[in-house]
Design goal:
- The structure is a single chain.
- The two termini are about 35 Å apart.
- With about 300 residues, the protein is an alpha/beta fold.
- The C terminus is likely disordered.
- The chain folds into 2 domains: about 160 residues, P-loop containing nucleotide triphosphate hydrolases (Rossmann fold, 3-Layer(aba) Sandwich); about 110 residues, 2-Layer Sandwich (GMP Synthetase, Chain A, domain 3), CATH 3.30.300.20.
- Strand 7 and strand 8 form a beta hairpin.
- The chain has a 6-stranded mixed β-sheet with strand order 2-3-1-4-5-6, with helices on both faces. It has a 3-stranded mixed β-sheet with strand order 7-8-9.
- The radius of gyration is 20 Å and the shape is globular.
- Helix content is about 35%, strand content about 20%.
Amino acid sequence: MENFKSGFVTLIGRPNVGKSTLMNKLAGQKIAITSNKPQTTRNRIQTVYTCKEGQVVFLDTPGIHKAKTKLGEYMVSVAERTLKEVDLILWVVEPTTYIGAGERHIAECVNSTKIPVMLIINKIDTISKAEILKFIDAYKDISEFAEIIPVSALNGENTEDLINTIMKYLPEGPQYYDEDVVTDQPERQIVAEMIREKTLRNLNDEVPHGIAVAIETMKERKKKNIVDIDAVIVCERNTHKGIIIGKQGNMLKKIGTQARQDIESLLACKVNLKLWVKVKKDWRNSDFLVKNFGYNKKDLD
């Protein structure tokens, strides 16, 4: 197609700055899970935005942070490696004048590449318009930014301008995906992540980092338009198992009900979801179990 732009754009930033929420907003569909807990995104997730001018393949990466486990090392490696593979970097930050060690580490990473970097100041719905300039001023000298764009991923403010600006920086190129494709993630992976999201949102702080979700079976009933899903929530301690199940199984039922609603919306059919909870002690430090729960080491080769 003549003058058709296409390319790969990564979203990076510290954990919990709103990368996944922004990617979902730009793609126009919920693909990446969100919660107010750090380390919500563990894998690199691709979503695709297509319009008549071009196609943007967004890569949402885990937040860059100081790794303390094998899983943490994997997550940070995925995020940092992705910086070398794209046409444009969107560095997402919160509106603040304090630039800490985490942001300075990201600045070192982006400054070592020759790829254009846009600074995206997210969550502007939480501040006054007059304050935006002081946040821009705080960041403007930390890196050579191609653009600085304030947005609200939550309500979509300035996201259309962001798409138009991204297109200016992409080369002319092919359409990588059909126009109705919105992600490269298998359905099973998205389903597992939707269950993990509801677990993160409903549990207190000490449990979420230590959970993973594995889909045991996912089968469509013949001629019934119903999908049966058996899934296991894996945690690291017996005490965590009790918290996830809850009194008389109420917490597990709540997680299951909320997840089923999202999964039905994704699959456009009725879903019969059954959840179990298993304990796998210290799984985040086991190469085998990290791989077993979908975090693939070959992504780092």
